[in-house]
Design a protein that fits this description.
eight-stranded parallel barrel, 8 strands, TIM Barrel
């Protein structure tokens, strides 16, 4: 399946987001709303972004006891959201409860290992071994629990493609366009074309678009790179 671009709308206020969304209309289909904007403005902001014609990926990384997460998913079903994240490390019972509550058309994505974490960071949480091993473990758990999609770094996509059903959606942050300097707080990164070739179905890009002198042109360049990838 073709790989799609998701804009990570990681800005502090809706006033900062508004001109970006105006500029990017028609250049980006998916917008990811994370904890910062959702905490500040709540469900009404999700409705506003969807009302502007965008498909919304709500990145809340739900992680709590099964009943609490299930009720949260049920509450979020009313929002115009196409994707929603839950932490795969919440365990099978939590994942199954969340999936059972998700309305048709809402893709639950199991978050495996954050792209800001490396082996040292994992070890500090009591998980030994390479990130790839933990990603594989959590990804297989999420799929066995009924989830149809995952969030992972692009470096684990090829591994998961060899282990998981072909239709599994793989959403990958940690994307830096060719020639982009630095990786910011991401530690496991890849270019858009490389992620698409590895098997990502969606890539998440924030600062390389948000901080560009022409955000729409930056988004179109990434989309064209994806389209040209065999």
């Amino acid at each position: 399946m073709p790989c799609e671009l998701i804009l990570a709308l990681d800005v502090p206020t809706r006033e900062a987001a508004a001109p970006l969304l105006r500029q990017l209309r028609g250049s980006v289909r998916w917008v990811k709303i994370g904890l910062q904007l959702f905490t500040a403005y709540g469900p009404d902001y999700v409705r506003a972004v969807a009302g502007d014609g965008y498909d919304v990926f709500l990145d809340l990384k739900l992680h709590d006891i099964p009943n609490t997460v299930a009720r949260a998913v049920d509450s979020l079903n009313a929002l115009p959201v196409g994707m929603l994240t839950v932490h795969a490390c919440g365990g099978r019972e939590m994942l199954e409860a969340a999936q059972k509550q998700a309305r048709p058309g809402l893709l639950l994505l199991g978050v495996t290992v954050l792209t800001s974490m490396d082996a040292q960071g994992l070890a500090q949480t009591g998980v030994s071994g390479a990130p790839q091993a933990q990603v594989s473990r959590l990804a297989n758990l999420a799929v066995a629990s009924g989830l149809k999609g995952l969030v992972c770094s692009p470096l684990e996509v090829a591994l998961l493609r060899s282990e998981l059903p072909a239709g599994t959606r793989l959403v990958t942050p940690g994307i830096r366009p060719s020639g982009e300097a630095g990786s910011d707080d991401q530690k496991r990164v890849m270019t858009p074309a490389a992620a698409a070739r590895a098997g990502s179905t969606h890539i998440v890009v924030g600062r390389p678009i948000l901080q560009a002198s022409d955000p729409a042109a930056a988004a179109r360049a990434i989309a064209q790179e994806l389209e040209a990838t065999p």
